[in-house]
Design a protein that fits this description.
Chain lengths: 426, 557
């Protein structure tokens, strides 16, 4: 796809500003009614989903160029997709999220890329991980762990750690406990270890479509070659990449069932295969990671056309309107609610209209202050519900929240991974 | 032309609002130029309005607004303020305009439960305000355009109607104290506020300025900036929080535990006279909380999830639904009171030969319609703007008597069908009228909605031609004119020759002369003004007093 492919739908943006807010029926509090971090932080209309659609139209009609200011706006977007959920309640023709992403692709194509992200891309392409660390160290998190090397021997389940769990020592326990919980429940688990590479999702959302294609093709081949029937990850971003970006770019993982660890834990707990021994007296809330939640819904390529019927543009064949409803929402909640002593309370912005953690789209790397501000907003929301802990299911979200806790001093709010919570209860 | 960054004006504006809150970039400013209805006045098939602003600024306080306005006066610039900015006149209509985007002024400053008012800034939306009010058992009138719109803008500067008008009065009627930055930059505190008596009324000691400030339609951002206002709020007998599921799936929203003191009734009648009688009786009996009507074509547009779904649903539902109807929501203090109101309603139906539209009383429609009546949400936008990209009310849309409402509703159907058959307008079966009841049935506000494809110039023009035809028919058959929202009082006394002259002033003329009109507004005023007690002369005089430097970018009346 190219920006031009979205021009047709862009003409139907009515500039209603609905993309700035969570679904109107879901507004239960004035303070937490916004859905888009970008417009909420920077306010100028161009920062909103609709504003990006209009900017794209302006550029396509040759009314202006990608100036420094326009470029800054394009990159100050996590591509969290909240705008699209709200927009698609009203119209099905406009694609604000895809346009926002295409604008990043266009910047790269025109050599107007963000410098900070250019450096990230360089080291990622060179080392196959976002931190620029050694490939040989990728599997260190699993040292001493009884787990199969899926590159060498067949395993039914392939656990994909991703960059953050592989290289950030503070997250190594999440990866280890994920494997232990699955193995302990009798699952046949393997890992790629030092043979694993980045899923490429970050490249895609930073505007490097072709680099993503190359990297993702490589890992897709490795995953298929190992013969595992199920691919499990504890990273929301990796999950979203496999679930959406791979089919978007026609990368094939056919025959491999993709699962997030929360889905696996939900099943195992339901089957009584994980024994929870400890009570955890804690008032917690759950943060839906964007790429596991609204962006974790299945993606089906649509190749059709719009025809006029009764004066309206109708998709033929039928096309699913993407509102993020098919993401992974219930399994993590079931897991939390299944732990004795825990009181799970919902935040005002939840599920498909959850507020973003701030880390996505290259924002964490290029604009850490904006990422921290976004995460801080979420922490405030959790605090407003009187929570003692915020649980999430993506190490990137947790990273952003940890940063914000440190910088904004929101008190004693704990930030935890879902796997850690389950491990505490076993 | 954008302001040069080296210019004095730019530097002073930047100093006021800060680097982050000013832009002169053409692509960024285009996001303020693209507007709904832009296809009617700009390049055909395109929603970019003809003119870009000089700059866009985002002030964060009354003081900053005041300073920005003074800079505009000082440097011969014009200015225009907007909140969510969702219509063509939110864009500049003349050269040399600085747009004030009031997004940073978004606080609910006070909810006074004793004196029953809410004090708000311009970017507070209806949904935000309503959510906070419901927490304390209160409610506000919500503009049917959508709960995503600014509550202040409707009351102080614009126009809009909503289902709550039945019980809570119409938008401008709820306006109390106002803080108004005049076009010369001075701050006027209007109503009781000006006498240091708080925000409780728009009429302070001495004559009221409310009529001068906003008239009937409001000045649409064209006469100073309203920076704070208080709105009258009302009792809400429902829950403190409306909990529902599937909020992101139009047509599939479901309540979770809606209390049994709230119920929706969709009613049909054999003719408009009977409906008028029923509306009158409902008001007289003082039952009902909100009330309105949607013709079946429009209702189906709103109830369908997607355009493809609309095609199917129209086939299934259109003939199954009665053409003449209205909907009422009963929200009472107890289950017993609800039963009482329902018995009264049944008696009224007995007397008027009406009945319940059972199909809409059931799932999957009941919750969707009830939720829309309580919160409005985005269903209106989904039904009209979201489907085709553009809509407008045909002439004949305004506040009228109950009897005229029925005649207007039926009048546009056949005229519209011709364009529908040509495939130029959205096929709602010709039945796209929407309306609400004001002040317990005293008046009806009606909009004959037309949806078209803004990217298709032929479709845009079909809408324009329909406007002309409905206008002509309205004048000839009903001795009534409601072009661009202007209601002619005592129309029977008017000289018919003068009315016929109005045919010269067609919407397509307006479009052709849009630049000229935008510059001076004179073609419209000169022809229509004399027929309407020279309102334009009075408006000009008021304007000269309030805006000595002609700094506001005034919209057409």
């Amino acid at each position: 796809m190219a920006l031009e492919d979205y021009e047709f739908g862009a003409r139907y943006c009515s500039r209603d500003s609905i993309c700035k807010f969570i679904p109107q029926y879901a507004v239960k509090d004035a303070r937490f009614a916004q859905c888009c971090p970008s417009i909420s932080r920077y306010n100028v209309h161009a920062y909103s989903g609709g504003g990006r659609v209009i900017m794209a139209t302006s550029l396509l009609q040759g009314r202006g160029e990608i100036s420094e200011e326009v470029k800054e706006i394009i990159y100050k977007c996590q591509l969290c997709g909240a705008c699209q959920t709200s927009c698609h309640i009203v119209t099905e023709l406009v694609e604000p999220l895809e346009i926002a992403r295409e604008l990043k692709f266009r910047c790269v194509e025109e050599g107007k890329e963000n410098q900070a992200l250019s450096s990230v891309r360089e080291r990622l392409v060179k080392t196959n991980n976002i931190f620029g660390k050694k490939q040989a160290d990728r599997g260190k998190w699993a040292e001493g762990l009884k787990v199969k090397d899926a590159g060498a021997e067949a395993a039914e389940v392939l656990f994909f750690a991703g960059c953050r769990l592989s290289y950030d020592d503070s997250f190594a326990p999440v990866a280890r406990k994920s494997v232990e919980l699955m193995s302990g429940a009798g699952m046949d688990v393997g890992i790629l270890g030092k043979g694993e590479t980045c899923c490429g999702g970050r490249l895609f959302d930073m505007g490097y479509r072709e680099d993503f294609r190359k990297l993702a093709s490589t890992i897709a081949k490795k995953i298929k070659a190992c013969g595992a029937k199920r691919l499990v990850t504890a990273c929301g971003c990796c999950y979203g990449t496999f679930k959406q970006f791979f089919p978007m770019m026609e990368l094939d993982l056919e025959g491999v069932e993709l699962l997030h660890i929360s889905e696996v834990l939900d099943d195992l707990m339901g089957e009584g295969k994980i024994e929870l021994k400890r009570e955890i007296p804690l008032r917690v809330t759950y943060h839906d990671p964007c790429h596991l939640g609204r962006l974790g819904e299945p993606y089906e390529r649509w190749e059709g056309q719009y025809v006029k019927k009764l004066g309206l543009w109708v998709a033929e064949p039928d096309r699913e309107v993407r509102r993020g409803l098919g993401g992974v929402f219930d399994p993590p909640r079931n897991v939390i609610a299944g732990i004795e002593g825990i009181k799970l309370v919902e935040m005002k912005r939840k599920r498909e209209y959850a507020w973003c953690c701030g880390a996505g789209g290259g924002v964490l790397e290029a604009y850490p202050e904006f990422a921290a501000w976004t995460a801080g907003e979420r922490l405030q929301e959790a605090m407003s519900e009187g929570c003692e802990a915020l649980v999430t299911a993506c190490p990137w979200c947790e990273t952003a929240f940890r940063m914000a806790v440190k910088e904004s001093g929101v008190g004693e709010l704990k930030v935890m991974d879902l796997v850690d919570l389950v491990a505490m209860a076993t | 032309m954008a302001l040069e960054e080296s210019s004095q004006a730019y530097r002073q504006l930047r100093e006021i609002v800060g680097e982050e809150n000013i832009t002169t970039d053409p692509v960024v400013m285009d996001t303020y130029v693209w507007q709904w209805l832009g296809d009617l006045v700009g390049e055909k098939g395109n929603c970019f309005m003809p003119l870009r602003p000089e700059a866009v600024v985002l002030p964060g306080s009354t003081r900053e607004v005041q300073r920005v306005v003074k800079v505009c006066n000082r440097f011969g610039l014009k200015f225009k303020a907007h909140s969510t900015g969702w219509i063509s006149y939110a864009a500049p209509l003349t050269e040399g305009v600085v747009i004030l985007d009031l997004r940073r002024m978004d606080r609910i400053l006070e909810i006074n439960t004793k004196d029953m008012y809410a004090l708000i800034e311009p970017y507070v939306t209806f949904s935000q305000l309503q959510a906070e009010l419901m927490k304390v058992g209160l409610n506000c009138e919500v503009n049917a355009a959508g709960s995503n719109c600014s509550a202040l803008a409707q009351a102080a500067a614009g126009f809009g109607a909503g289902y709550g008008n039945y019980h809570m009065g119409y938008g401008a009627g709820t306006l109390l104290g106002v803080e108004w930055v005049l076009p010369d930059g001075e701050v006027l505190k209007m109503g009781s506020l000006g006498s240091g008596c708080g925000w409780i009324t728009s009429d302070g000691p001495g004559p009221s300025l409310k009529g001068i400030m906003r008239g009937h339609m409001g000045t649409l951002g064209g006469c100073g900036v309203f920076t704070k206002c208080a709105l009258r709020v009302y009792h809400w007998p429902g829950p403190t929080e409306i909990v529902c599921e599937n909020e992101a799936m139009p047509g599939y929203e479901r309540f979770v535990n809606l209390p049994d003191n709230i119920a929706m009734y969709y009613l049909y009648f054999d003719d408009y006279e009977k409906r008028s009688e029923a509306i009158c009786k409902v008001g007289e009996e003082d039952i009902g909380y909100v009330m309105g009507f949607m013709q079946r074509g429009l209702a189906i547009l709103g109830l369908a999830d997607t355009n493809a779904h609309f095609v199917d649903l129209k086939e299934d539902l259109f003939d199954a639904l009665p053409s003449i109807s209205f909907v009422v929501l009963l929200a009472t203090h107890s289950r017993e009171e609800l039963e009482h109101q329902k018995r009264v309603l049944e008696k009224i139906l007995e007397e008027t030969g009406g009945g319940y539209i059972e199909l809409l009383q059931q799932e999957p429609f009941n919750d969707v319609i009830t939720l829309h009546l309580i919160k409005v949400g985005t269903l209106s936008a989904h039904a009209v703007c979201g489907r085709s990209g553009a809509f407008l009310c045909a002439p004949g849309s305004n506040a009228v008597t109950r009897r005229i409402a029925g005649r207007l509703e039926s009048l546009s159907i056949e005229l519209k069908k011709k364009y529908i058959e040509e495939g130029k307008l959205v096929d709602d079966g010709g039945e796209g009228t929407w309306g609400v009841v004001w002040d317990h049935g005293h008046t009806i506000y009606i909009e004959n909605l037309v949806e078209w494809d803004p990217a298709d110039p032929e479709s845009s023009m079909a809408h324009v031609r329909l406007q002309e035809e409905v206008n002509k028919e309205t004048i000839e058959k009903l001795s009534y004119l409601s072009s661009m929202g202007t209601f002619v009082e005592e129309s029977a006394k008017m000289n018919p020759e003068d009315m016929v002259k109005l045919k010269d002033m067609t919407p397509s003329d307006l479009i052709e002369k849009s630049e000229e009109m935008a510059a001076a507004h004179s073609p419209y005023d000169a022809k229509l003004g004399p027929l309407l007690r020279n309102y334009h002369v009075w408006l000009r005089r008021i304007r000269e007093q309030l805006d000595p430097n002609n700094s506001s970018d005034a919209s057409p009346p």
